[in-house]
Amino acid sequence: MPPRTIAIGDIHGCLAALDRVLAAIEPLANDTLIVLGDYVDRGSDSRGVIARLRQLAERCRLVVLTGNHEEMLLAARDDEVERDAWLRYGGAETLASYGAASLEGLPAADIEWILQGADGFETATHLFVHANYLPDLPLARQPVEVLRWESLWQRVPPRHISGKIAIVGHTAQHEGEIWDLGHLLCIDTYCHGGGWLTAMEVDTRQVWQASRAGELRAK
User: Fold this and answer.
1) What's the pLDDT score for residue 219?
2) Which of 94, 95, 133, 142 is 20 to 30 Å from 182 by CA-CA measure?
3) Following DSSP, what letter does each residue of 168-190 receive, concatenated?
4) CA distance 176 to 211
C-alpha cells in the first residue's frame, strides 16, 4: 500500500471513537497521521487518548498539533484565572480521567508530551492547522492566536498563498458532516457533543467516522 496522509479532527477525550477509527484505518509504518489538536477536554477519557496517541507514534509517523484546549491546559498550570477558565471548558473532565484533584496530579511525562505539539504541518499539497490561517503568510509566520483560536464563523479565509488545500478543525460542525469549501475542509464533526470523530485520507478523500460510543458510521 502506498503511504497515506490522514488527518484526524478534534478528539476531545473520546477514546472509544479514536480506537474505532484507528481500527478501521489500520495505520502502517509508512503512513502519516496528523491530529489537528483539541484531543483533550470535554470528553470522558483524555488520559486514555493521550496514552493511545503516544502508542500510535510507535506504529507510524504521527504529527500532533496544539489546539486551544491544549494551550488552555498548559496555561492553567501557572495562572489561577486561566485554571478557572480551563476547568469550565472541559478541564474538569480531563482531571477526572486522571482521577486527579488538580493539574499537579497529571503525570509529568504527559505534560511534557503535550508541550511537544506543533503549530502546523505541511505537505506538498496540503496545509494542516487547528483553527484558521491568514492567507498571505507562510505557515511559519502565522500568529498562534489565529492558528489555535480563530473560528471559521469569525472569518473564512480564501485559498492560502501556497495554493495548498487547508485541513482544519476547531469550528465544530454540529451536523456531523465535513465542511468542504474546496480550498479548505473543516473536519471537526463534533464527536464529544453527539456527532462523529472524523479521519480523512487527504489525497483520496477516504473518510472514517465513529461516534463517542465507538460505533463506526457507514459511508
Assistant:
1) 67
2) 142
3) E-SS--TTS--EE-SSEEE---B
4) 10
Q: String of b and e for 38-58 (b: at least 16 CB within 10 Å)?
A: bbbbbbbbbbbbbebbeebee
- State the residue for C-alpha cell 464527536: 191
pTM of the entire structure?
0.97
Among candidate residues 53, 90, 71, the one with its CA nearest the CA of residue 192: 90
Residue 128, beta-bridge partner list: 121, 167
Grid cell of 184 as nine digits: 479548505
Q: By the 8 A CB rule, do 142 and 166 touch?
A: no
For the record, the C-alpha cell of 23 comes out as 481500527
Under 8 Å between Cβ of 200 and 6: yes
- β-pairing, 206-210 vs 184-186, is unpaired
Burial profile 99-135: b = 16 or more Cβ within 10 angstroms, e = fewer: eeeebeebeeebeebbeebbbbbeeeebbbbbbbbbe
Helix, strand or coil, per DSSP, at residue 31: coil
- Nearest-angstrom CA–CA distance, 30 and 1: 9
Q: Which amino acid is at 142?
A: Q
